[in-house]
Design goal:
Order of helices and strands: EHEHEHEHEHHEHHE
Strand content: 5-15%
Number of strands: 7
CATH superfamily: NAD(P)-binding Rossmann-like Domain
Bound molecules: NADP nicotinamide-adenine-dinucleotide phosphate
Strand order of the largest sheet: 3-2-1-4-5-6-7
Oligomer: single chain
Length: 249
């Protein structure tokens, strides 16, 4: 019997990259999964297929989580299908990197809305059903960029630092209801998001890493699965960096 048997998890941006890995790992440990995606329905369906062909339960739900009505629809779909939400992983995210002198205002707004507002939207919608059940695990995917800063990422760093503050405040609001709220801050993981990083940044990362390899999607998924488990019931308001020692705070 898996560690998360009987649990229901919503994973935003669960169709690709780190979110896909989290969805598969939570399913492997027994949770039923709501795989949220924005535009790539085929990728989300492939994740659902992989889970169900291994004997698990999953559905795919399209929703732009930066939009409150979509977030509400996503959480409603989860409740309609599985009747509860135990675990919410706020993973959906994007980048629009540029130096501030060149960055367009719409790229600032898009990244803040996709990464930070979405986290608030989904938490706001999921918190009532969690309070009703007196159980919840919210795990927000932030980034070392939100701790350390990164030139060219004033929008992204601000969104990810905001997630850390939100995580701490929400943890204080809902801890008495047996709901934990934590963040996971990946370092550099090979996904579509990092596929076109400039070579000089890649070289700097290689030099700074204490563990001399880039992180895998599984490294992040395992940390999320731990925070979602009963073993992590006394951990809340924390940011767990999964970054090969890149940032030590
Ligand atoms: P990715 O490969 O680009 O995947 C992004 C996922 O988010 C996709 O499933 C995408 O869905 C979904 N998404 C984007 N905008 C959305 C929206 N408005 N509503 C719903 N879903 C949306 O990215 P990744 O590298 O796996 O990153 C996942 C998370 O980890 C992000 O929060 C990112 O900031 C964080 N992170 C990544 C790294 C890294 O090194 N990769 C490091 C630190 C933190 P569609 O496919 O349908 O568009």
């Amino acid at each position: 019997m898996g560690q998360l048997e009987g649990r229901v998890a919503v994973v935003t941006g669960g169709s690709r990259g780190i979110g896909r890995g989290i969805a598969l790992e939570l399913a492997k440990r027994g949770a039923s999964i709501v795989v949220n995606y924005h535009s790539n329905a085929a990728a989300a369906e492939e994740v659902v297929q992989e889970i169900t062909s291994n004997g698990g339960q999953a559905i795919a739900v399209q929703a732009d989580v930066s939009n409150m009505h979509d977030a509400e629809r996503l959480i409603k779909a989860a409740l309609d299908t599985y009747e509860k939400i135990d675990i919410l992983v706020n993973n959906a995210g994007t980048t629009r990197d540029n130096l501030i002198m060149m960055m367009k205002e719409e790229d600032f707004d898009l990244v803040i809305n996709t990464n930070l507002k979405s986290t608030w939207n989904c938490a706001k919608q999921a918190i009532r059903p969690m309070v009703r059940k007196r159980y919840g695990r919210i795990i927000n995917i932030t980034s070392v960029s939100g701790i350390f800063g990164n030139p060219g990422q004033t929008n992204y760093s601000a969104s990810k630092a905001g997630i850390i503050g939100m995580t701490r405040s929400l943890a204080r609001e809902v801890g008495a209801r047996n709901i934990t709220v934590n963040a996971v801050a990946p370092g550099f993981i090979e996904t579509d998001l990092t596929s076109d990083l400039p070579q000089d940044l890649r070289n700097w990362v290689d030099e700074m890493l204490v563990i001399k390899r880039w992180g895998s999607i599984e490294d992040v998924a395992n940390a999320v699965a731990f925070l979602a488990s009963d073993e992590a019931s006394y951990i809340t308001g924390q940011t767990l960096t999964v970054d090969g020692g890149l940032v030590m705070s």
